[in-house]
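Input sequence (155 aa), recorded before submission:
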Amino acid sequence: GINLSGGQKQRISIARAVYANADVYILDDPLSAVDAHVDHHIFKHALTTILADKTRILVTNGVNHLKEVDQIVVIKQGRITQDGAYDDLIRNVDGDLFRLIQESKLVASKEGAEGSGCEESSEADSSEDEDEAAVVAAISEKEAPSSSADRPTGP
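Predicted structure, token format:
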């Protein structure tokens, strides 16, 4: 048997999905195990170019590509807390998307500081699982529903 890294397994899974030539793709955190360069390459060439005429739904905690998607749905504790275009959602400084982006920036700056030998407080790392929000980003060229009231919100 061949031992593959998590990133290699994800690249194979994405390639298989693309090869399947489906009309709808639902991808659960497809870029989580790849580095930033590969993440950018897969998003640009596979998810937005090869699959440009397909409906693509990404479920992710990452915020890297949210500016490039058509529709964002933020889910927290099984409920939709925000729904809309990036520019509209980011204006709400009390919203979960704004908070996720700020936390992402804080983590990125902290990782950069740790890489340079600087130490910072670990208070930013103390987030509770039940408080975390997930981002469901639909990057389809097809028309998305206009209201979150039309969609189920889960249990």
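Checked by second reader. The first strand starts at residue 24 and ends at 28.
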